[in-house]
Amino acid sequence: MLGLTLVLLFVASALFAPMIAPYDPNAMDIPARLSGPTAAHWAGTDQLGRDTFSRLIFGGRVALKIAVIGVSTALSIGLVLGMIAGYGPKWLDNVLLLTFDTVLAFPTIVLALATVALVGPSLELVLIIVIVSTTPGYARMARTATLALKNDEYILAERSLGASTPRILLHHVLPNVVGPLLILAAMDVPVVVTIEAGLSFLGLGVLPPMASWGTILNEGYLVIRDAPFMVVAAGIPLVLTTLGFTFLGESLRDIFDPRMGRGRS
Amino acid sequence: MSAPHLDIRGLSVNFTTPHGPIHALRDVSFAVPKNSIVGIVGESGSGKSTVLWSILGLLSANARITGGEVLFEGRDMLRQTPTALRAARGQDMSVVFQNPMASQIPVLTYGRQMLDILYRKRDISAADKRALAVEMMDRVGIPDPATRIDQYPHHFSGGMRQRAGIAMALLPRPRLLLADEPTTALDVTMEAQVIHLLRDLAAELETTVLVVSHNLGLIAEMCDHVVVMYAGEVVETGPVHQIFHSARHPYTRALLDCDPARITQKLRHLPVIPGTLPDLGAPPQGCIYAPRCTSALPRCATEPPLSQTGEPGHSVRCHAPCDASTAAATTGQTWVAAGPRWVPDTPPLLEVPFLNVRFRTMGPIRARLNGVADPFVDAVLDVGLTVNRGETLGLVGESGSGKTTLGRAILNLTHASAGSVLFEGREVHNLREREFKPLRRDMAMMFQDAIGSLSRRKSVRALITEPFIIHGVKGLDLNAEAARLADLVQLPRSFLSRYPHELSGGQARRVGVARALALNPKLIIADEPTAGLDVSVQGEILNLMTDLQAEKGLSYLLITHNLAVVRHVSDRLAIMYMGRVVEQGDAEAIFARPAHPYTHALVSGVPQPDPDHRSSAPPLRGEVPSLLNRPPGCEFASRCPFAQDKCAKVKPGQTALPDGRTHACHFPMI
């Protein structure tokens, strides 16, 4: 319940950012720069006098965008590739598995550094890096689940009825495989948000003046001696979102797992 | 009778569930005399296993004992400290489990596991413990025990594992041995061996045995006393002869009547017990069996009957017990004896001149490296069979005989390496799936696992109408079709919106039949259609299949290991052993005079549910050889009591007999 509340709070604040944020996130107020929390600026201001609270609210939009687009794309691609690897011929399984493992073996930051060096930082690049680095996780999970189902008698029964392979995968394998993947997705959201924040912190992600939790952290880190509160303020939404999605993932796991909930009072 | 060894008095157990408490056991009382073998018999849901786990104090966490006592040698086991209970388990009482595959530790050798069992006996040295273990392995009939004791469970076959399980249970010399369905996971010939082993060892070691089983044959073969349970209550207890010959409770009689092995006349329609088990969340206030009882009186519905004793040691809980002197049927059903059914002069529906299925055992490179010339195992070898229109061919064999593989190969679900399959005269062997698909409308399959063969997240409606969607049948009202099929298999229409896990075994089987029938096939290959079903439900499913056959002119290829069942529903039989058909022909003729010694062993190996006709020795000794080391001569020679020199060297061919049967034996028994 706490998980869902935190997640809804995060989504709502990102969606209705212009209505919630008390200031324009890019409006500068140089005289009031680097203030701590005050009645006017709840989370203080940065070195250009921009309201940190408003910037955090708008930064949530970037995080949400990366989380929703990144995770859902990675989930879909991973699901399809994983089911093909698990159900298809052995050689295809080997090829796909080798690909997944190669990608997984690459540290995300190294991958990011290499690509940014080639094409320069942008939000789209962050998205692509997020998708490439998280897809193999879903694919491996979907593959294992499919492999376990493949020899179940009901799959054989469907074959004996004449069901085609796409039909078996779509109607009879997918519904049984997708549950654990959704849980993984919920737990992956904070990871993805942190990747974005991390890349932006390193200056490899979102470009200034656009607000993102990573860039705010980065800016706060630069002025930590003058305005120590900024780093703290930027960390709070990151912590809350991570907690929220982790709790949500755990309750999803309990709901999807038939051994929990049912049979126990 | 001396003071009972184990005395259960008024035991009541509830299970807490989200839907309220389930009254799993209500006022269960019976006694187990010292050095006797007592059997608890009942169908699933009768609570027979719950009794066993209550004695051991191993009930699941949501169970609550609401009353009664379990006196073992005068001590109440329900009121022992956990330490005292642990000391009693495995010292004074031990268990033989149902599934030896799952109840043994896969990563430890038997020697190690058996030393662990004796850990409380500190005064014995490890070497002596090992000697004891070897001796016990020898006693249960494991050849070369000193070597085999250092092997792991996966080195043992199913029958050998159960023997080892018995050895482990008996190792601490318990005074009470509890056996939970000890033969259910085993084949017929192994079952007979294990029954004899348990019986002989119990007498030899002076152990009291309490065995739980749904198998009336096992109970009749082993037990001195029988406890009949129904829906959490003991309905009748008594000496085995009285229970089997002059049962007084209507349920006991109905149960006995339902057992196909007890019916000597061939019947197309098997007797059943109408109705279903009552809801144990709110059990009826009167007699628990009254709603299904054919001789119920008005007061049965309101007044719970008390236990009354007739003959010494024989008590029954019924208001109007049957007269002990009449042993006739009480179910009030008319039994239709089967006449011969012939469909002459039409070409056979399915003809398999010969078929081979081989599985690869290792990759080509590894085979070359290890010097294996032929890295294959023959699961099905030169099998030929014929199914005529409108007839039932029973395909009988033990596990590993290749019968399921054969069924799947005919349906093109498993690749057959060589051979030919003619369906309505057309060659369909190894067709490509696209070409085979239209044939799937005419050939349907029912799978062994009734619930597991239904896609888990589909409703019954979606499951039984799926064939129409797959084969693109247009212009049908799917809801109407679903209702029609549900009516056809006598499944209440309200079940259409249920999901597989909400079905009982019998209901799931009906869904399987409905789905197989959706497109009006000509042939149904049914793989163990009665596996895992209670005797009364088993009859219902077989009767349904027989009725539908008569109505629609279906042909069945019935794959089973259950000879007692196959006898009543099959026109012809094919007996398989190690991938070969060893005998084929008219079912009655085969049962009357088996030609092949293996068939003979199978037919006589079915435990007779009659305590007066206990077999003196198991019909077959030894085990099925590994398919990897196929003997050069007759496959059965190593176990055959009549084998001669020729059998070990020359492979017998198929020989035809005057009555149309074929067999593969050098020295047939006719």
What separation lies between the terminal Cα atoms of chain B? 49 Å
Total beta strand runs of chain A = 0
Helix content of chain A: over 70%
The structural class of chain B is alpha/beta
Radius of gyration of chain A: 22 Å
Major sheet of chain B: order of its strands? 6-7-8-3-9-10-12-11
Arithmetic mean of pLDDT of chain A: 85
Tally of helical segments of chain A: 10
What are the low-pLDDT stretches of chain A, counting only 5+ consecutive residues below 50? 259-265
Largest contact between protein chains? A-B, 22 and 29 residues
Biggest sheet architecture of chain A: none
Average the pLDDT over all residues of chain B and give the rounded result.
87
Give an overview in words.
The complex is a heterodimer of chains A (265) and B (670). Chain A has 265 residues and is an all-alpha fold. Chain A has helices spanning 2-15, 17-20, 52-87, 90-105, 108-119, 123-150, 153-161, 165-201, 213-222, 229-256. The radius of gyration of chain A is 22 Å and the shape is elongated. The two termini of chain A are 19 Å apart. Mean pLDDT of chain A is 85; it is low at 259-265. Chain B has an eight-stranded mixed beta sheet with strand order 6-7-8-3-9-10-12-11, sandwiched between helices. Mean pLDDT of chain B is 87; it is low at 328-334. With 670 residues, chain B is an alpha/beta fold. Chain B is built from 21 helices and 24 strands. In chain B, helix 14 (460-470) packs across helix 15 (478-488). At the A-B interface, helix 7 and helix 8 of A face helix 14 of B.
